[in-house]
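User: Show me a protein chain along with its predicted structure.
Assistant: Here is one chain, sequence first, then structure tokens.
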Amino acid sequence: LLRSAADFPRADAIVPVPLHPKRLRERKYNQSAMLAHALARAADLPVWPDALQRTRHTVPQAELTYNQRKENVKNAFGVY
């Protein structure tokens, strides 16, 4: 349970994982961004929504094995 910034003693910010624009159009929302904002409010931290950029489209992770998931997201993000 998150109660305060003390639950994040070494965090500078909350960074949501970006969706590819195609997936965002399909879903209409980014659940990672929604969670990031809720966590940021609870922890009194800023949200850095543009710290990560998706560099390529990936297939959904839900049905992939652990190793397939690692390969699927390899080089799929850049730090800005």
